Amino acid sequence: MTPVVRALLFATIGVFFLQQTLEVVYYLFVFVPQYIVLRPWTVVTYMFLHAGIGHLFFNMLGLFFFGPRVEERLGSRSFLFLYFISGITGALLSLIMGPSAAVVGASAGVFGVMLAFAWFWPEAPIHIYGIIPIQARLLVIITTVLSLWSGFGGRGGNIAHFAHLGGYLGAFLYLKWLDRKRQDFRKKATAGPPVRELKFTGRPQVDLQKVHEVNRAEVNRILDKINAHGMSALTPQERLFLSNFAATDDRPPPVS
pLDDT category, 195, cuts 50, 70, 90? Predict the structure, then answer.
């Protein structure tokens, strides 16, 4: 059991029992879309309420099975962001699609975790009812289709299908952002130091008397190359080297 998953399990179960004993907990935490401006905190707190013991059990079972592996992959901090971003987007999509229905449950957060699991291990087998094997990515596809069908006029029941879809959406966007962030980091980490290419406006003026004899032969070679082929024939490295000895329009020649 990983730290954040453990904390979420205990917190959610603890709030559920408080909800059963203190009626005010439900009214403080429940998300009612039409009251979002008056009670903005409920886009998070609704995730700790549940409609019954069965509702709580299946959500926590999903968190227990999918959460630890995803947390180990992402790290605890990113996992926590994933969970709550999924829950918040679940609440917001419910707001857009059904502005009067109250919403409770951790389903959006758990669905976000399930999508992350399928993101990293798409072919991992998930056993429905402990018997029927199905690939993780196929499970996400099937539950998405069912939530869309149920949400748009199918057998919706008393289930917040748009919260489930919002959980998938939030997790997808967050994982895409993490991928982009890591790609940018890898590019910066693997890139060499930037090559400063001096923009000569004409043939560079070089005072060979001020060039140390160690570098004089290379400077002469580059100047000969310019005479033969023009400035465009220089490589960025040759331009950089020559810039140490050349006078340009915007910089005086170095003084040795």
Answer: very low
